[in-house]
Amino acid sequence: MSDDGVRVDKWLWAARFFKTRRLATEAIQGGKVELNDSRAKPAKLVRPGDELRVRKDAYEFHIIVRDLSDKRGPAKVAESLYEETSESIARREETREQLKAQNAAFPLPKHRPDKHDRKQLARFKRNTE
To answer: Residue ranges of the RNA-binding S4 domain (predicted)?
Structure first.
């Protein structure tokens, strides 16, 4: 690791935002990562004080880089590499609540349909068409 910076794909992997460097690189190339309010490239160097926006699934993280690492370590160490803004935390919590409410409207069945259930479904589909 050099003192002047670490590749953004390595840093995202080390900070445990992505499980592999390949996933981090694909996210960066797909426009899901912004470095200091501009689109990032995988080889761009990240330094302490830089701001990153990472969109992952339905969530967006707005973080400030506090420390550098190009090695993936324990989760506690990874958490010390960045600081998430309070607005970002609030937005993620709001999104989490929305998704939770949305999923509550469509509960999952308790079990897979058995033979009787499948016949009922087939009968229902035939009558609605």
So the answer is: 6-60
The total of other beta-carbon atoms located within 10 Å of residue 11's CB is 27
pTM of the model: 0.78
Q: Taking the domains of the chain in order of start, what are their residue ranges? A: 6-108
pLDDT, tens digit (0-9, with 9 covering 90-100), for 44-89: 999 999 999 999 999 999 999 999 999 999 999 999 999 999 999 9
pLDDT tens digits for 88-122? 999 999 999 999 998 888 888 888 899 999 999 99
Strand partners, 38: 35
Tokens read off for 7: 């590749």
CA geometry: angle 19, 25, 29, nearest 5 deg? 140
What is the β-pairing status of strands 59-65 and 6-7?
unpaired
CB atoms within 10 A of CB 102: 9
The Cα–Cα gap between 13 and 6 comes to 11
